[in-house]
Specification:
mainly beta, 8 strands
Length: 136
């Protein structure tokens, strides 16, 4: 499945019924991190859980509740990536963005550079990468 670069957030949630409509709940963190704003209109895509398709309703509900409500970082420590530096941070480090706008800070890189990095640190909202190959 291809995920759009326009994806603002990704989470698991239940669909509940309220009178004549169905409601999905957006985790508070998605609002607090500024990815989405209350009162705005967004396109929503629902993806079925193929692994739960053959289970009964009770098991599917239990599994959905135990799923993490926030997306995991799209990179892992030790992973190598080719990135383009899009911006410079306040402390002079290069900033690259990957899936879902996730930020990778690259010390020693300049805007417009395309470099191969190794991810050295991963946090929930950003990672740090070390240049292992200059301009590619």
């Amino acid at each position: 499945m291809e995920i759009s670069e326009k994806l603002l957030c990704l989470f698991s949630t239940d669909v509940s019924e309220e009178e004549d409509r169905y409601v999905i709940e957006v985790p508070r963190q998605e609002i607090e991190t500024g990815d989405i704003d209350p009162g705005e209109v967004y396109r929503v895509a629902l993806i079925s859980r193929e692994d739960e398709a053959s289970t009964d309703e009770g098991t599917a509900t239990a599994t959905a509740q135990s799923a993490p409500s926030e997306p995991q970082p799209p990179v892992d420590v030790g992973e190598t990536r080719y990135v383009e530096i899009e911006d410079i941070g306040k402390q002079g480090d290069g900033i690259a963005r990957v899936e879902r706008g996730y930020v990778i800070i690259v010390p020693g890189a300049d805007v417009g550079e395309r470099v191969k990095i190794e991810v050295t640190e991963v946090k929930s909202n950003f990672a740090v990468g070390e240049i292992i190959e200059d301009t590619f």
